């Protein structure tokens, strides 16, 4: 048996667009389930909203997301970020390039005082991403 911890992101009605974007960044298989598929009335404002989505990538990443139901408030904050790190320089630079498109770059992807390449941005969906590339010692 095992347990795992993965990010679960909330969106104000654009989960499908956001998760399809993340699939374009990381690849993998994306599952999208609507509230309507699980019993919401056809005339419900939530029927076509995403109740649950899962992106499973070949790299072992799992990212989940959902639309906030219409009877709840979407309250984005600055108390969470999603970190992607490792030593696959090409893959991580590719993720950064895609995530940074249309994003607010807080820290450009460049060598940092601790020796790694690191960048931080807030993507076009309001999600903060941290990319850290552990480079081999010179």
Automatic annotation (TrEMBL):
Q: What is this protein called?
A: Glyoxalase/fosfomycin resistance/dioxygenase domain-containing protein
- In which organism is this protein found? Saccharomonospora cyanea NA-134
Q: Where is the Glyoxalase/fosfomycin resistance/dioxygenase domain?
A: 5-129
Sorted alphabetically, which Gene3D superfamilies does this protein's record hold?
2,3-Dihydroxybiphenyl 1,2-Dioxygenase, domain 1
Q: Taxonomically, which superkingdom? A: Bacteria
InterPro entries (UniProt xref):
Glyas_Bleomycin-R_OHBP_Dase, Glyas_Fos-R_dOase_dom, PhnB-like
Pfam families assigned: Glyoxalase
């Amino acid at each position: 048996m095992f347990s795992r911890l993965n990010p679960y992101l909330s969106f104000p009605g654009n989960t499908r667009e956001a998760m399809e974007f993340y699939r374009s960044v990381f690849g993998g298989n994306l599952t999208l389930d609507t509230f309507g598929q699980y019993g919401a009335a056809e005339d419900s404002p939530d029927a076509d909203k995403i109740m649950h989505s899962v992106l499973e990538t070949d790299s072992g990443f799992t990212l989940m997301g959902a639309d906030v139901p219409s009877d709840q408030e979407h309250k984005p904050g600055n108390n969470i970020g999603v970190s992607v790190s490792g030593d696959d320089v090409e893959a991580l630079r590719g993720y950064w390039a895609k995530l940074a498109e249309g994003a607010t770059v807080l820290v450009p992807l460049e060598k940092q005082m601790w020796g790694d390449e690191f960048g931080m941005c807030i993507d076009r969906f309001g999600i903060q991403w941290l990319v850290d590339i552990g480079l081999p010692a010179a």
